UniProtKB/TrEMBL annotation:
The keyword Repeat applies. Keywords: Repeat. It comes from Carassius auratus (Goldfish). It holds the Pfam family MORN. InterPro entries: MORN, MORN_repeat_protein. This is MORN repeat-containing protein 2 isoform X3. It comes from the Eukaryota. Transmembrane segments: none annotated. The keyword Flavoprotein does not apply.
Length: 134
């Protein structure tokens, strides 16, 4: 599938989702999201950022109606690479993600504003250390 046409579109999907941005038409006529664009789901989730191969790939921001926000790198529609996830309660994780999970070096800011640093793996974060600002 080689790309032959690059264009900007505004499209409403049958489920009510809306995409505005860049796309390409493959040699066999399939239109795929590619480049920069914004998609808003019918449920109010909004992604603004880079697309490739019809998926969120590259740098972008995903905002949920709950107030949760992820800003960082995506791969195949998942948080993957460096990023920041802010929970609705104001707590926040900044660090490395692997397939939507905290994975590797990171910092977690709790509801009191204390910053905890260390290694994160799946749902565990053993041996976190309190970051002291002097």
């Amino acid at each position: 599938m080689s790309e032959i046409t690059s264009l900007k579109i505004s499209y409403i999907f049958p489920n009510g989702d809306k995409y505005e941005g860049e796309c390409c038409r493959t040699s066999d006529g399939v239109v795929m999201r590619k480049g920069s664009g914004t998609q808003t789901s019918a449920s109010g989730v909004t992604y603004t950022g880079e697309w490739d191969n019809d998926k969120m790939n590259g740098r972008g921001t995903l905002t949920h109606p709950s107030g949760a926000i992820y800003s960082g790198l995506f791969r195949d529609n998942m948080y993957h690479g460096k990023g920041t996830y802010r929970f609705p309660d104001g707590t926040e994780y900044t660090g490395t993600f692997n397939n939507n999970r905290f994975e590797g070096e990171g910092e977690f800011t709790d509801s009191q504003g204390l910053v905890w640093t260390g290694m994160f793996r799946n749902k565990a974060a053993l041996g976190l250390k309190l970051k002291v600002n002097m």
